[in-house]
Amino acid sequence: MNSDSYVGRLPRMSRLRMFESAARHLSFTKSAAELGVTQAAVSQQVRALEVELGVNLFERHHRGLALTPEARRLLRSVVSAFDQIADTAGEIRAASRPATISVGVTFSIGTFWLLRRLPQFRSSFPDIAVDIVATDDGFEKIADQVEIGLAYGDGTWSGFDATLLRRSDVFPVCSPAYKRSRPNLVRPEELLQDVLLSNEDARHGRFGWQQWFAALDIGAGSLQPGIRFNSHHLVMQAACEGQGIALGWSLLTDDLIAQGQLVKAVDATVPSQKGFFLVAQRERQNAANLLFADWIRAQFA
Description:
The chain is α/β, with parallel strands linked by helices.
């Protein structure tokens, strides 16, 4: 493209923009309000354009403005050019704009951590659509449906790069009211005689009450009958409602404790061998996924 064909002949863009606005409103005052400038600035720019072109563009009457024939001719060209520029810019933005990210989470991570913070991401990046894919059957079950995610495990997921965000500790939690009703509950072995809420499923390697007591060298052969669920977030809900004592994982219980819905039942913690990871498919990363990954890492900085 040879810019010499129009350089020196094309009026200044600022003058054309103010002319188009004034011509559309037939008012310098309304044009100034639209463009965020003073009425005098619009009038001066339009007058400068008239001098440059050597014609009057407006007939100035007591009750307002009227377009001259030359102005109507110029307006048609300016509107056509502005429309074409706007359409092309829109197409470029649409082609380069990050579109949709598919985020995989467990129901617990989604419920107790991500959903509480997701509005912050949406506020910062309103043009990125977010698809949440959740499961309680292990991250592997949804790996083919997502490009990025938050997973709990040992950091090994086929086809994904994993970045450790936080190691997790495991400790007993209950509602404040439940804790007050057990003033003599101090030592972890005393939990054996209490109502324990547990998450039971068929997955190998599930960390539950038996494993927690064993880590503290406490024999758990005399566990009292409690309430069993097949969903961690149901366990947490039951604990919040004062139905017993549950095992809580740091990160998943941080907000519930901070908000006063849960407290630690006793002062005993077992470090988990697993952690919370940011996972990303190696072959399917785009600008939107990278923005989400940076945002997630910033939450743990």
